[in-house]
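Homework help board

Subject: predicted structure for assignment chain

Our instructor gave us this sequence and asked us to write out the predicted structure in token form, then describe one feature. I got the tokens but I'm not sure how to describe them. Can anyone check?
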Amino acid sequence: MEMLQIDALIKQYHDELHERVLPFWLEHSQDKEFGGYFTCLDRDGSVFDTDKFMWLQGREVWLFSMLCNKEGVRPEWLECARQGAEFMLKHGHDGDYNWYFSLTREGEPLVDPYNIFSYTFAAMAFAQLHKATGEERYAEATRRTFAHIMERWDNPKAQWNKAHAGTRDIRALAPSMILCNLLLEIEHLIEPEVVEQSIDKALGDVMNKFYRPELGLMLEHMNADGTLSDTFDGRLINPGHTLETMWFVMDLARRRGDEKLIEQAIEIGLKTLDFGWDKEHGGIFYFMDRKGCPPQQLEWDQKLWWVHIESTIAMLEGYLLTGDERCKAWFEKLHDYTWSHFRDAEYPEWYGYLNRRGEVLLTLKGGKWKGCFHVPRGLYKCECLLKELKQKMER
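My token output:
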């Protein structure tokens, strides 16, 4: 990768973030009357639904708090983060930091705290806002929320779990995956020994249980005893989840100076891309069955924004850390596909959902599952990795 090319890529990612994506969310998502954020935004930023989903509220608080901590405090960023956090603290939990899944616009609970991601993104949000402001009540929200996360580790849906007890005990990758990222976001507020023990647990689950070397794939679910489950859930492969997890693992490996773990994460990422890439139309499948059986999810062949953005990060980080030319080739392929298919040339922010052929399926820029997170985080993360790569080449 030539220096001029790196400079152009740095500018591309930086300008898209600061000139188009962040202004979109600052202008269109903030609810000036009731607080918090609208996330159901159409192509031009118009609001098409006012329900508020707590995991997306937490993601937006985190995003603007993180930028204040990394790039320096800007009043509009900090105010955006604060007002969202205050809405969350006032309305988003049951009084004991059990975070609802969704609320009405005004803040009345709609869906109970069944979803562990409402908790994880609340913890991330308040940890970063505490770092930006020094306010202890945000730290307390993080600590109490994290305690609930660990209490619910083996049963993330708690009393809202619909599975009949004792018949099929399935474990999901998602809690271990998110912990790999969450711990680096909140470690300044958690006891060091708890952080290290939790990292060991998360890495052990991801790399030694859910990753199956005999398959060359990362499972989304396995039996509680660690065996394979020949069921819809047990055969499910989500390539985007695997690749996002691998850059989380690389971040942890960098923190610990573990070069072997970096190499393992890269190999898993490369195998997943080989498995998950659509050889006919390009792009990465959303869901796949490890045995090639018909997937349960009818949207299995859609191409999603977050899958491609997270995979781009993983390959760029792999190339930065090792110089592996396979990572470079995949980064360039993913970069080209993502920018040419998901970016909206006429309006800010990116499309989220394409059909298998790469055509826009929905014009929305935000909804129940897409908010102010993967696009801005991905743009910022790639810019930072490219700057590191430039520095490495200049040495």
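Reply (TA_rk): Your tokens look well-formed. For the description, you could write something like this. The CA atoms of residues 38 and 73 lie 23 Å apart. That's the kind of observation they're looking for.
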